[in-house]
Design brief:
The complex is a heterodimer. By secondary structure, chain A is α+β, with helices and mostly antiparallel strands. Chain A contains 3 helices and 10 strands. In chain A, the strands form 2 sheets. A 5-stranded mixed beta sheet of chain A has the order 1-3-8-9-10, with no helix packed on it. A 5-stranded mixed beta sheet of chain A has the order 2-5-4-6-7. In chain A, a hairpin with a 4-residue loop joins β4 and β5. By secondary structure, chain B is mostly helical. Chain B has one domain: Hypothetical protein af1432. Chain B is globular. Classes of the chains: A alpha+beta, B mainly alpha. At the A-B interface, β3 and α3 of A face α9, α13 and α15 of B.
């Protein structure tokens, strides 16, 4: 299997049986993994911030930076490879938070809220998620099988 | 174990004189390029790194720079200080801080990102750069290079304290080793005879609120830069975000969520340009 690395504010889609989409060290950022098991198309997004109105120019250059520009592009890019919305399996990970943050630094929570709003509006259900808490996560999506692995606290790996 | 850790601190090599001499020379507005290059020339590692660094997009130099003399002339004062500091400090991050991160390059990437973020924040608040703060930010996690092997050996116990007992990573270190990575870094800086503003910023970078001197600005900015960079996951390690939030920092500098988000976008951009700085280690 060959790793295809998805950086911060980036997204990759693939139908290559050998490919494994990987993204490292999600702090408060969120990884969205989508997969169509019929055509075996997978996509992985690693967005950093909730809302592209913060910087429209940056959103044009790096649509994967924001939830509201990255998520639609992730789905559309998969459709181009033959995926269909009704078959898509959606899993998410990340959105970690600093301990006892009460009234600032809530980027992780805001990232999650933005995602839930977008999914609610577009009638997309989340099949599995590993979010919140205060550790970094590294995730892998195997394109051949759709297997989604999350490495979390203490380096333990689990399948979502 | 504490004794052994303290002995490892004493074995940390001396801080390169070159960096201190250059910083000293550049304090004078009328510094001579020749004098500066004379000092740098004796340090081969720094010379090589400066040429690499100054050809990086971060410094925006258009034509390729081949000689040290040209580098010093082109870069100008602030940038030459930045380049000398970055290449001088990198040698202390060559050893992997296992237990925290899998590769030495991760901790270095994180350190450079905190250095860059410290300048983004300082510029936002005070409209200028601050090279002393940059050094403190670059060195904030140097204690992890010492503590890494202990963290690695006691990893399960640490994870137990953090995962089940709700300790911060820093508190877990204190419980198990009697010292934390921030204090180790402070002791290293003191050993190098660094000014107090640098050593205290390193020592308090997770708990600036516990510092007696509440007027000090550097510890708060290193703290904030570290937290923002960690949220972005840049070179992120096992400790992740398992540190206490000190909410006071937001009021102190009148920063809102939006400001933090803008700083994240700015860091993303600076990191793209600063790949060569990261590659130095």
């Amino acid at each position: 299997m060959s790793d295809v690395v998805v950086g911060i504010s980036d997204l990759k889609v693939s139908s290559g049986e050998q490919d494994c989409l990987v993204t490292y060290a999600l702090g408060s950022c969120i990884a969205v993994a989508v997969y169509d098991p019929v055509v075996k198309v997978g996509g992985l997004l690693h967005y950093m911030l909730p809302d592209s109105t913060l910087d429209a120019e940056k959103a044009r250059q790096h649509p994967g930076m924001f939830a509201d520009t990255g998520i639609p592009l992730l789905f559309k890019s998969c459709y181009k490879l033959g995926a269909e919305k009704k078959r898509m399996i959606v899993k998410i990970a990340g959105g970690a938070r600093i301990m006892d943050d009460m009234n600032y630094f809530r980027i992780g929570q805001k990232n999650l809220t933005a995602l839930r709003k977008i999914f609610w509006k577009n009638n997309v259900l989340i099949d599995a998620e590993d979010t919140g808490e205060n550790f970094n996560r590294t995730v892998r999506l195997e394109v051949a099988s759709g297997k989604f692995l999350v490495k979390g606290l203490g380096g333990t790996i689990k399948e979502l | 174990m504490l004794e052994k850790i303290l002995r490892s601190i004493q074995r940390v090599p001396a801080f390169p004189m070159t960096i201190q001499k250059v910083t000293e020379l550049l304090r004078d507005e009328d510094y001579s390029v020749q004098e500066v290059t004379q000092v740098i020339r004796y340090d081969q590692a720094i010379t090589a790194n400066i040429l690499r660094t100054c050809n990086s997009a971060y410094f925006g130099v258009r034509s390729r720079i081949g000689t040290l003399n040209d580098a010093v002339m082109y870069l100008g004062k602030d940038n030459i200080i930045r380049a000398v500091q970055t290449s001088g400090v990198s040698r202390f991050y060559k050893k992997a801080a296992e237990g925290y991160v899998p590769r030495a390059s991760d901790l270095w990437t994180h350190s450079v990102s905190v250095g860059l973020m410290s300048q983004i924040l300082y510029k936002k608040i005070y409209q200028q750069e601050q090279p002393v703060l940059y050094t403190a930010a670059l060195l904030h996690d140097v204690g992890k290079v010492i503590l890494g092997e202990y963290v690695h050996k006691s990893f399960d116990e640490i994870m137990d304290l953090v995962g089940r007992e709700g300790c911060s990573f820093l508190e877990a270190e204190e419980k198990l080793f009697g010292i934390n990575h921030a204090i180790i870094g402070e002791k290293i800086a003191e050993q190098w005879n660094f000014p107090e503003e640098i050593s205290s910023a390193i020592g308090s970078h997770h708990r600036p609120d516990l510092l007696a001197d509440h007027a000090a600005v550097f510890p708060w900015l290193v703290y904030l830069a570290d937290q923002i960079s960690s949220m972005m996951g840049v070179g992120g390690g096992q400790d992740g975000l398992a540190y206490r939030a000190v909410s006071e920092v937001a009021e102190r500098f009148d920063l809102r969520d939006k400001d933090i988000e803008v700083c994240m976008v700015q860091l993303f951009e600076d990191m793209e340009k600063a790949r060569e700085l990261m590659a130095i280690v």
